[in-house]
C-alpha cells in the first residue's frame, strides 16, 4: 500500500478535472452566432482561406530551437555544482558543449537556420514547379 497516496492523488486530480468540465458545461453561457464562430487572428479581420500551406521551415526551426534549448538546460545544474564535481565534470561538459557546437555547425552549414533557403545553383525549374 505504498502507492495508495499516489493513487489517491491521481484520483483527486481526475475528479477535479471532471468536475471542472461538468461545471463549465452547466454554467457557461452558450450563444453562438456567425461572427463569434469566425476565425480569430489577433484582432485582425481574417483574410483568405484558413486552409493555407505553412512554410515547413517554421517547424524545422522550432524543433532545432527546442532541441538546443533543452540541451542547454543541462548546463545549469552542472554550473551550480561545478566546484564539488571537479575536473572530470568540467571535461565531460566540454565534450557535451563540443557535441552541441558540432550539431549547430552542421545545421548552420546545411542552411536550416535560414528562413528562406536558397535554391541550389544547378536547380532547373520543371513544368510542375512553374
Q: What CATH architecture label of the domain at 56-110 applies?
A: Up-down Bundle
The CATH homologous superfamily of the domain at 56-110 corresponds to NADH:ubiquinone/plastoquinone oxidoreductase, chain 3
The share of residues in extended strands comes to under 5%
Structural class: mainly alpha
Radius of gyration: 26 Å
Runs in which pLDDT lies below 50 for 5 or more consecutive residues are: none
> Can you count the helices?
5
Number of strands: 0
SSE order, one letter for each helix or strand: HHHHH
- Mean pLDDT reading: 82
CATH C-level name of the domain at 56-110: Mainly Alpha
Global geometry: flat
CATH topology of the domain at 56-110: Methane Monooxygenase Hydroxylase, Chain G, domain 1
Report how far apart the termini are.
Answer: 69 Å
Helix content: 55-70%
Largest sheet: none
Question: How does this structure look, described?
Answer:
This protein has helices spanning about 5-25, 55-75, 75-80, 80-85, 85-110. With about 130 residues, it is mainly alpha-helical. The chain has a domain at about 55-110: Methane Monooxygenase Hydroxylase, Chain G, domain 1 (Up-down Bundle), CATH 1.20.58.1610. The N and C termini lie far apart (about 70 Å).
